[in-house]
Protein: DNA polymerase IV
Amino acid sequence: MRREASVLHLDLDAFFAAVEQRDKPSLRGRPVVVGGTGGRGVVATASYEARAYGARSAMSTAEARRRCPAGTAFLGGRFGAYRRTSEVVMALLRELSPLVEPVSIDEAYVDLAAGPGSDLSVDGVTELARRLKADIAAATGGVTGSVGIGSSKLMAKIASDLDKPDGLVVVPPGSELDVLHPLPVTRLGGVGPATAERLRQVGVRTVADLAAKSLTDLVTLAGRAHGTGLYQLARAEDERPVVAEREAKSVSQESTFERDLTDLAELNRLIDAMAARVGERLRDSALSGRTVTLKLRRYDFTTMTRSQTLPQPTDDARQVATTARRLLAEAGHGGGLRLIGVGVSGLSQYAQGDLFADDSPVEEEASGIAVEAPAAPEPPADRRWWPGQDVVHDELGPGWVWGRGLGRVTVRFEGPLTPPGPVRTLAADDPALHPGDPPDWRPTTMGA
DNA sequence: TCTGGGGTCCTAGGACCC
DNA sequence: TCTGGGGTCCTAGGACCC
Structure:
């Protein structure tokens, strides 16, 4: 805990949904749910309008559909658009200080004490946050964020959560415990459902209750590391530094299927495809790893992992795939699998095979698909389109997919800088309709 | 039509080594 | 030769986060 409120936490509000509402004017002010739109999808983000009907992150999309009224937009994610917007925000944070720790695409800590601004008084950081929020909204086309500032990561994060959305809370140094102690323990990072239930059983509901427990009690209850952590957080003791660069510890790829799969050849082909993507990502980041992990989720949702550590690190898709296939053969797949994941951990900087790797196109071969899989059947025309997708029509211009089915696709033709636009239903195989790029939300100043 | 996908960190037991 | 102790690696699972 520092003597000044010099740690800032930013949390963008309902971020995915906010980007969708920016780019799709007809959705502004209306309920929007972003996430998996298939039968086994879950909600990634619900707009505040959708939250009013009870839609929540991590809820199954089926449940959100039950709760939300007709006309609610259920969209798959457009991660390229989110990433671009996030980069604009992170760049603004780096103007405050070089020490910026992104936690996720929509969240970051900033160490203001490492920045050029010297006024770390409560008034000073409040004014800084006010300007930051205005800059973010202006640069992103209206995406808002909640800012918390305090004497530690703990307090900054708690503060940003106190007044969502579009909030600004500074916890003055010295008042940490006044803010912390009345809160439910579940507001502390690291207290999830399991820990909350155990704490409840010993009469702990608030952070003040937690602070009354002895270190020994908490270690017994939650384990050595976690118990010690809880003991300190309850006292606002938090010395965790803001860390700009964190090295990746693992790279993985997983997929839940629309229906449970039982066919070994099909499962092996999926392993190959996932291994190919993992290998590609490893090589993109110049990493290789020694431990290959296969994750399986069975028909009954029980989850297991099987791993094997190789003698040498690898970034080779074939080696990852071969290892994962063997792990699957040993683990079995009786009853059917709903999910498979392939991952590599134990990472190091340099790929062992790099010096000798040919740069011929091994990837298709490595995936196994070109070698032994029958050619994937061309998906039906309407399967090319998914809700929320950016498209462009040769005559009608840019727009986005509202829905699809029965050989048709419904598109709304509008963009971030247009008024709400018209809806047209087209043949799914309309040759004039193409996948599009995320639209630019910034008004063009030069002729583009 | 229950329950995504990408991660991190911790624990615990057994193997193995000194 | 009847019983040690510590350290590291590997594997599996669980809790948690966004």
Remarks:
- The first helix of chain A runs from residue 15 to 23.
- The CA atoms of residues 5 and 366 of chain A lie 52 Å apart.
- Chain A has four domains: 9-150, 181-233, 250-367, 381-446.
